[in-house]
Amino acid sequence: MKNKFIKNICCIGAGYVGGPTMSVIALNCPDFRVDVVDINKERIEAWNSDNLSKLPVFEPGLAEIICKCRGINLFFSNNIEECISKADIIFISVNTPTKTKGVGAGYASDLKWIESSARQIAKFSKNHTVIVEKSTLPVKTAETIKIILNSSDDNHNKCIDTDVNQTFSIVSNPEFLAEGTAINDLQNPDRVLIGGDDDESINLISDIYINWVDRDKIIKTNLWSSELSKLVANAFLAQRISSINSISALCESTGANILEVSKAIGSDTRIGNKFLNPGPGFGGSCFKKDILNLVYLCRYYGLNEVAEYWEQIVNINTWQQKRISHLVIKNLFGTLANKRLAIFGFSFKANTNDTRESPSINISKNLLQEGAKLTFYDPKVNESQILDDLDDLIDNNILVYETALKAAQGADAILILTEWNEFINLGWDHIYKVMRKPAWIFDARICLNKNKLEDIGFKVWSLGT
Ligand code: NAD
Ligand code: UGA
After folding, report:
1. Closest Cα to atom 12, ligand 1: which residue?
2. Which residues on neighbouring strands pair with residue 7, listed in sequence order?
3. Which of 88, 118, 181, 368 qualifies as a FRET site for 379, CA 20 to 30 Å off?
4. Alpha-carbon gap, residue 386 to 212, rounded angstroms
């Protein structure tokens, strides 16, 4: 009987990329069996939870796909050995954070999870396997993976013992999804980038995507162009945010309005209107780490001017967060001692539960250091995550609430740090009544109606106005 599944895909890493990406592949390729594996037992249990609100990643549209595919051609498990051994194609989707110690600390990507994945593959894979770099990696990482695969002791012993003819090809296929819109980004990508040095493997990966993506959108390049393009795409996107944020400060000093400026410049089709929303600085697990990685690469190749140019984007981002914290302190009479401030929004952007590098973390830390007591409300981020992110500074000065109204009770000020849609229509009259006066709103996302709030009685600071 013909095997129901014509290809076995394994994805190492069941995180924000591995989970949604493999779900969309499983949805569009019913003839493939997709196994997503992870070393983290709790994460896999959460992916297998019957209660879909317990999935480890909140992403609009994801739960519906999980419902359709899980247990049919999509499987989440900790069976790393078994899934690698039967895979024809292995996606590596593990974390690649910035190194915290050793050579390149603070800039270079920590590739220890990539290395451990490569070693697992060398140990357990059989026959010919196409390895796909889905994680964001420094240029030439494919070379490192190749060396590990070809020189591993496990691999060598296996070949001698069992006569297994183990061969590998490596392809780079970086992911461009943004959190909060991941499912739409995966279903309707602007492009799919596949880099490699053997056409057969590139075409094999391309064949997966043509099940739902137009052929014209599939860009094929060499390995290094593909790896570098991912870093550069993130650097360009972040550059726009730092540019508009730097101008938000100039608007506040001159009486120009950043929303008007953003609209005026974005209407030039050469500039375009996307990614020009001013805010408290970009967060998320990737922009900062990918730019720092690019900076590291430039320095490594002796291109110091280029490195400094890109590093400035991260510097402006940090400055914007400090600037907002100082502004809050200044408006609250120069001191936060015994003041209660309510933080509305803790995720790094709306429609995700991810808090990695969220501007809320740095701004909250700055305010706590000034002696403020903080309350928090976020529609999707739970209490333990917030406490975890503020670790050493908690000291009884933090309370997390399940409603915005409760978080605002007795507060001197509210800071809007994530642009959750529900903030627009909160019962602001009621919230005003329960706060201490003068009651301030610092709208760092410019998502509220300033005039209406001022009519209620609030004092309002809106970024860039
Ligand atoms: P993540 O931390 O959410 O997930 C990574 C997972 O890999 C974790 O669950 C971890 O336990 C697992 N893992 C690590 N080593 C492993 C091993 N040896 N075997 C099995 N599992 C292992 O990370 P993420 O946000 O999904 O990002 C993954 C990669 O994708 C990163 O390189 C990131 O830069 C890139 N990326 C992320 C996004 C995003 O929106 N988060 C978008 C595009 C690209
Ligand atoms: C970003 C890129 O958009 C993705 O293409 C890329 O795949 C991903 O990084 C990655 O490599 O991890 P993501 O970080 O999920 O996606 O979300 P973005 O929508 O890019 O937002 C990043 C940060 O910038 C958020 O804090 C957001 O609030 C902020 N932002 C975004 C602004 O302040 N202004 C804008 O106009 C846009």
Report:
1. 13
2. 32
3. 368
4. 38
